[in-house]
Each structure stands twice: as C-alpha cells, then as structure tokens.
C-alpha cells in the first residue's frame, strides 16, 4: 500500500512552523495537535457509521453516528502523546492505549518499556500515533505488538516520515496503511530525519 500523504497548503504552512527551530514548546504542541486532527480526518474516511434517528428543531431525520468502540488510538511514548491528546478533541470517547518505546541512541533499536491497550483490542481498528517515522524500527515493533494481540486492521499516523522508514514498514507490514503529513528527504548518519524537525520528544516536552 502506498502511504497516504496530506498534500495541502494548510499542512505545508503548519509544517513550516513546526520545523522552524525558533518555534517554542507551546506552539510546537499546538501545531502538532492540529496536524494530527487532519491525519485523523484522512485516516477515518472509511469509518462505518451507524444510522440513528434524531430530531432537529425542524424535522425528524436518520443520520450516521460513529461507534467509537470500533477504534483504539495508540500513541507511542513519548512523542506520540501529543497526538493522542489531539485525537480526543475530535473523538472524545476514544479508547486510548499506550506503547512505551525509546531508541537506543547507538544501535537505534527500539527498547520497549510499557504496553497497555484497551480491552477487546482484537475487535478494533487501531490507529498508531507517532510524529516521527525514521528508521521504522519503533513503528515495526509497535505494529508487531498490536498484531500479537490479534488486531487485524492497523493504520499508522506520522507527521514526518523518512523514505527509509516507509520502506521498512511496507516490507515488514504490507497490510498496514501509512498516513503522513509529509515525506522528507533522508536519514542522517545518527538516524535523524533531514530536514525533519529535530527530536520530537525533546521539542514537545522541552527536555533539551
Ligand atoms: C522517536 C519518535 C519515534 C522514534 C522514531 O522516539 O517519536 O518513536 O524516535 O525512530 P525510528 O523510526 O528510527 O524507530 P524516541 O526514541 O526519540 O523516544 P521519545 O519519544 O521518548 O523521545
Ligand atoms: N526521532 C525524532 O524525534 N526525530 C527524528 O528525526 C528521528 C527520530
């Protein structure tokens, strides 16, 4: 499956602010959240609605309603947390899981330190959330963990993806649909996306 890329002037505008090293923590969080909502909009285009009877002030009608129990949103810690916060603004009853992973700075291999997902995850569509898809190691490990729990339908939402990470996810998990706000040029020798935005976790939490 080809990755779905949000090509839109508004997204490029927001990415410009996000990437700029002068952008501070508050604005960085806000913009990352706004882009997440656009990613969610795109990734839920195929959401099935249940028809319900309602009455407007003018007339009775039948209208579609989302069954939020069919979904789970799973941010990858830490940086994905900001995306999870944004999701609940548009899917307020969202069931949220968490996967804790960090990259070993030398080997770039992801280390797992937390895993907690909503009950009945196997019957839900899972949207994994991580702003950065770099080597693809964290994404592939997170996808494997979710699959081990029996999940069949997985989408992965990133803000910036590197071609190397996209290639790896597509090879290891060809059934997973990737959504990204943009695809960048390459990874540098220490596994950072170029031009990228730097270290997403540090910029979101102000840790450096
Ligand atoms: C970042 C990012 C991804 C991972 C991507 O997390 O949020 O999870 O790196 O890199 P990969 O595709 O090469 O695996 P990091 O390990 O820096 O942890 P943090 O979110 O806790 O800062
Ligand atoms: N993780 C980040 O936060 N930034 C990168 O460029 C790559 C991995």
Number of separate structural domains: 1
Largest sheet: 8 strands, mixed
Poorly predicted runs are: none
Shape: globular
Structure ligands: 1-O-pyrophosphono-5-O-phosphono-alpha-D-ribofuranose, uracil
Distance between the termini: 37 Å
Strand content: 25-35%
Taken in chain order, the helices and strands follow as: EHHEEEHEEEEHEHEEEH
Name of the CATH architecture: 3-Layer(aba) Sandwich
- The average pLDDT value, as a whole number, equals 97
Descriptive notes:
There is one protein chain. The chain is of the alpha/beta class. The protein has a single domain, classed as Rossmann fold, CATH 3.40.50.2020. Helix content is 33%, strand content 30%. It is built from six helices and twelve strands. A hairpin with a 6-residue loop joins strand 5 and strand 6. Helix 1 (9-19) packs antiparallel against helix 2 and helix 2 (25-43) packs across helix 3 (81-90). The longest helix is centred in the first third of the chain and has 19 residues, at 25-43. It is globular, with a radius of gyration of 17 Å. The protein binds 1-O-pyrophosphono-5-O-phosphono-alpha-D-ribofuranose (PRP) and uracil. Residues 79, 132, 134, 192-193, 196, 199-201 line the site of uracil (URA).
